[in-house]
From TrEMBL, chains A, B:
Annotated localization: Mitochondrion
A Gene Ontology molecular function term of the record: enoyl-[acyl-carrier-protein] reductase (NADPH) activity
Keyword Calcium: no
Protein family: Belongs to the zinc-containing alcohol dehydrogenase family. Quinone oxidoreductase subfamily.
Protein name according to UniProt: enoyl-[acyl-carrier-protein] reductase
Coiled coil segments of this chain: none
């Protein structure tokens, strides 16, 4: 236990849903109490990420919502423990922690929280890995595990392979000997993108149009598991190469086009079309211990050099508007994060 | 053992795929041998049904196909045992039998088969129940069992509720205390159709357009299981009323329109879109003993008066062309069967 080191903290707050630039305000929060209660920790935030689900939360388009008014958004980030209240054995001042569950409000410089909601991570994985740890890599890990038991040599196919989850899928699959069939949009820097994904461990990188031919030429076996974050024809392309009994798992819909589930594929090829949401049934099924184990598995991959942190562009919390202006630029290629110490 | 009672049998035969009226021919088959081999039975067919999958088989559009040339179509029917070869203990002359597996060729007056491929049924269920036993009722039974564990009081929703499977679903669900939400097309004889389905045990009968309001007004709980044999908007209507974690199971595509699997429903409501095919993974998973048990369960429902046989229109095998001409009439409402004794 120690006394608070900060007179007060700042937080991005919204009182009603809307576009982030319209409804967010950076506000001074009430000072942390002199004495923490049982099970509480005071956290100083280091870096917090901005994910699509955060923007949707502020817009009121996400199923999990913080209580209005005075809501602080931010599902993901890394904080340092400043002091601990009575009966907090698991955490010590100076520890880095990440959220165990979404919607705790990470877009702030600090605050007081229930210790049970936070999980320690070692500092040697670095600030970027830690501040982007709890959503994309565990989503990739879970999708590779829960739908089909994949063995080394098996394949997984995905569209949107340059997305943060997509790149995590490539790396985690590679670490397990699972081979990846990656579909990306045709783009001006196609060669460089293919080279980058292959550098991460991708076995095949192709476009929707060339998928079938390139897969045949590659000699890779057809996958049981397909991952879709695009929808429309990009989803159909992946579903069409699945082995009988396979599953197309949708975790995003970047094209805003729905997925078609062809009747004959469902009936005669036994293809299933399912969804994945890290905060949905999966979270309920794995429970806190399972959640902690999956975060530790991601940390381990970082420590072994088998996961590379995403590229980020950081903005001081006090310059938060510039962060959301940057987000609005198309084809950024870098994840936007908030430096909560500035 | 006994000698053959028929000098020879006739069968509908096709040598190449195409429209049934173009490619089928009624032919005399070689006479049954004087001595049957071990495990063989000679069967005299009584009545065989014509299902959409039979027509698709003749057209070459079905995944299971008999060997050409000289193929005899017909997946379903009932036959009487004429005589048994050595080591056939399970069947006796005079027994009625139905196929254990599809594609044995039931559109014939008789022939010699492996006894293991046939399952005895009691005669008191009647010719119509027996000749339509192995496809639609077991499909309804399996779909009610394998996707979600339904309890008495739970609901199941389905479109195409006047189809043969749909009517079996209503009756089997009723026998188990499971309540049915049935979607049918608007039609001139709407009131009579609603009354008929309610007579079979339907709890709610409505149209795609009124489904949501009528379900709310009924006080019935939302279903975990939806059954779809239509596709398009009729599939979407059923998928939209499913409870979180529910499954839309497609077993047909009568509208020829594909199923849309909405991204948000898959991700945030954990709705799955799957297919069912009686001869697919399900058949492999249940094996012959499971298959026999499910046929016996259907027989039991008939004996208890909990299943009513479908309405049929019978044509003599020798007048088979009239049967296919009748099939081409829209909105028949009766299943077409072949009287194989005439």
């Amino acid at each position: 236990m120690a006394t608070s080191t900060a007179a007060s903290y700042k937080a991005l707050v919204f009182d009603q849903t809307g576009e982030p630039l319209d409804v967010l305000q950076l506000k001074d929060m009430p000072p942390a109490p002199a004495e923490l209660k049982e099970g509480e920790v005071e956290l100083k935030f280091l870096q917090s990420s901005i994910n699509p689900s955060d923007v949707n939360t502020v817009q009121g388009k996400y199923p999990i919502s913080p209580k209005l008014p005075g809501a602080v958004p931010g599902h993901e980030g890394v904080a340092e423990v400043v002091r601990t209240g009575p009966k907090v054995d698991r955490l010590s001042p100076g520890d880095w922690v990440v959220p165990m569950a979404p919607s705790q409000g990470t877009w702030r410089s600090g605050g007081v929280f229930a210790a049970a909601g936070w999980h320690p991570v070692p500092k040697d994985i670095g600030l970027v890995a830690a501040s982007t740890l709890i959503i994309n890599p565990p989503s990739a890990l879970a999708m590779l595990e829960i739908f089909h038991p994949l063995q080394p040599g098996d394949t997984v196919a995905q569209n949107g392979a340059t997305s943060a989850v997509g790149e995590a899928v490539i790396q985690i699959a590679k670490a397990r000997g699972i081979r990846t069939i990656n579909v990306i949009r045709d783009r001006p820097d196609m060669e460089a993108t293919v080279a980058r994904l292959k550098g991460l461990g991708a076995d095949l990188v192709t476009t929707e149009e060339n998928l079938k031919d390139d897969l045949a030429a590659s000699g890779l076996p057809a996958p049981m598991l397909g991952l879709n974050c695009v929808g429309g024809s990009a989803a159909s392309a992946v579903s069409r190469i699945l082995k009988d009994g396979g599953t197309l798992v949708t975790y995003g819909g970047m094209s805003m086009q729905q997925v078609t589930a062809p009747t004959a594929a469902m009936i005669f090829k036994d293809i299933s079309f399912r969804g994945f949401w890290l905060s949905g049934r999966w979270a309920a099924a794995q429970g806190p211990a399972g959640r902690a184990a999956s975060l530790d598995a991601i940390v381990q991959l970082y420590r072994e050099g088998k996961l590379v942190p995403p590229q980020v562009q950081a903005f001081p919390l006090t310059s938060w508007k510039a962060a959301f202006e940057a987000l609005a630029q198309p084809h950024r290629g870098k994840k936007v994060v908030l430096d909560c110490t500035a």
